[in-house]
Each structure stands twice: as structure tokens, then as C-alpha cells.
Amino acid sequence: MVIRKKKQKNVKQGYDRSDKHGDCWIYTAIKSDTKLHLAHSTGKRVQGVANELIATVKKRGKLPTQDDKASFFSDGNDQYTTALLENLDVDTINYGQLIKMRENGRVVSKTKKIIFGVLDEGDIETVVVERYNLTLRHGISRFVRKTICFSKCKNMLDDHLDVFQCYNNFIRTNSALTIETPKGIKNIERTSCMAEGITEHPWTWKEFLMFKWTGHEM
């Protein structure tokens, strides 16, 4: 969550730019096996932002079928349920929620809930996206709590997220994706895009900045 222009408590109801000021939520979609930052959307905690996220996931991912279903896991935000049903065929997806109960800011219990599809409750986890959210906080100064670097413009926030997405996918190696080799041979460090088979090596910033965009979404 990011504070822009003014704190949410100072945003008056009916203010014509209330959607541009106050709290801003970041919705992210991470592919758990390769840690690929697949999509994100930003805005108020409203249905439209969740719809935008799932629509982007649908556009960038492989379209699921009844024989090859896609599985989605999230927290207890039911906006995702509506977004999934609006963008994908319910017969081609599995969806489960991990609902955490908190007391005084501490998690005291967890409930795993199968919303639709066929799932093993033990597979319902959100640890990957939660860890990535921590990576975002460490990697982007405007996400640090109680900082003077908070976002003052949503467009700049979106641009910063886009750049970090490319950095995470193409440049940053992830220790969880490292391929161990026989003793005496250096382990193969991989980025998310290497694990996906999109590229064969970690990119440099120069490669990224000099890449010629052909008009197709990466």
C-alpha cells in the first residue's frame, strides 16, 4: 500500500480527485514455479483493479483448458473470485483462498478454502507472492513504510513497477531457481525468464535498455 498526495484520512468524500489521492493498492500475480512477475495493477481496493490484473494474466499466460487447468491462490479478497469468473471459464481453473485471522496485528489462525475446482487443501499457499511483496518493499524505495519517498503520481508508480518487473524477470537471478551441478562446476544461476525458457542467460541493464521493442508484449 502506498500513500500519494495526502493521507487517506484527509481525502474528503465527494472530492473529484479522490481516486488519485490517498491509499493506493498494488495487486500482483506471480507464477509460483518460476517466480515470474506475470502482471500487476494499481489503484483503489475496488473490483476494477482486480479485473484488470486477471485480464492481464489471461492475455500473457497460456489459456487453460478442461484437460490442462490453471490453479490460482490468493488471500481472502473475494474480488479475485469475481475477476476470475469474468475473465476465465470456471471449468478450466482451480481457485483456493488462504484466509488469515489476526489479533493485534499478529496472525493467530489460517483457514484454507476451496472456492471452485478440484484442489488439495495442502497446496493452497500464498507464501510465494508474500515473499515477492517483501522483495518489492526492499527493492523499491517508494514502498518502504514511513518514508519520504512515497509516490506522488500514479503514472510514475506504474512506470517504476514496470521497470522492476523486467528487472525481476530478466536480470535478477533467484536462488530458488539455481540448478546445482557436480562438485567443481559452477552452479547455473537462473532468472525467472530463463526458467520459463524465454531467454538463455541473465540480461544486463545494457541489454534491457538497448532492447529493440517490436510491438509485441514481452
Describe this structure in words.
This protein has 218 residues and is an alpha+beta fold. The chain folds into two domains: 2-170, no CATH class; 173-210, no CATH class. Helix content is 30%, strand content 22%. Strands 1-2-3 form a three-stranded antiparallel sheet. Strand 4 (70-74), helix 2 (79-87) and strand 5 (93-103) form a beta-alpha-beta unit. Helix 1 crosses helix 2 (79-87). The longest helix is centred in the last third of the chain and has 18 residues, at 154-171.
Q: Order of strands across the biggest sheet? A: 1-2-3
Measured on Cα atoms, how large is the radius of gyration?
Answer: 19 Å
Shape: globular
| Number of extended strands | 6
Q: How do the SSEs run, as a string of H and E? A: EEEHEHEEHHHH
> What proportion of the residues form beta strands (DSSP E)?
15-25%
How confident overall, as mean pLDDT? 88
Keywords:
about 220 residues; alpha+beta; 2 domains; three-stranded antiparallel β-sheet; three-stranded mixed β-sheet; globular
Q: How would you summarize the topology of this molecule?
A:
Layout: E1 2-4, E2 22-31, E3 36-43, H1 47-60, E4 70-74, H2 79-87, E5 93-103, E6 106-116, H3 127-139, H4 154-171, H5 192-196, H6 205-210
Helix pairs in contact: 1-2
Provide a compact summary of the structure.
It is built from six helices and six strands, in the order βββαβαββαααα. It has 218 residues and is an alpha+beta fold.
